[in-house]
Amino acid sequence: MRQTAISLRARCMALATLVFLSATQVLAGPVDPVNKTGHGVAVKGYDVVAYFKQGKPVKGSAQFSTSWMGAAWWFTSSEDRDAFVAKPEQYAPQYGGYCSWAVSKGYTAEIDPEAWRIIDGKLYLNYSKDVQRKWAEDVQKRIAEANKNWPGLHK
Fold it and tell me: What are the C-alpha distances in Å from 124 to residues 6, 14, 59?
């Protein structure tokens, strides 16, 4: 019975990985340094300063925007925009806003702005909340791997 449960669990994990890989939009080749929408907006229009100040993802507005690293960054207020303009590296997500788990594995993928975490004062985004849980299982190892991989993944 125990061997059957282990075998079933292994099959489920393999299936989940296959589904993830087939569902993930994997971006091939060197990517732009900032992950942006087809309209050039970073983090799908979410206010990156809000993650730090409000402790949650908040959709920004084009009314409060700035340009940095070839992308438009939207904010909920002029105060958040001005904080970003003063110190963009402090607020911009790691790995250009691509999925942190994917970067740790040597490729890039899109993100869900709701799948986020701040670690040591840095914002990390992931493809989904499920992927984020997997990434968080060994977060320091994943960050170290992503830090090593990121320079070779972007233009």
Answer: 32, 25, 17
Specify whether the CB–CB gap between 35 and 110 falls below 8 A: yes
SS3 7: helix
Q: Give CA 143 to chain center in angstroms.
A: 12
- Please report, in tens digits, the pLDDT of each residue of the chain (155 residues total): 455 555 566 565 554 554 444 444 455 679 999 999 999 999 999 999 999 999 999 999 999 999 999 999 999 999 999 999 999 999 999 999 999 999 999 999 999 999 999 999 999 999 999 999 999 999 999 999 999 999 999 99
pTM of the model: 0.83
153: which 2 tokens?
């993944």
Residue type, 150: W
Region of 67 please: left (phi>0), alpha (psi -120 to 50) or beta. Answer: beta
Tokens of 72: 């438009």
Gap between the Cα atoms of 133 and 45, Å rounded: 23
Alpha-carbon distances of 127 from 92, 101, 130, 135, rounded to whole Å:
17, 8, 8, 10
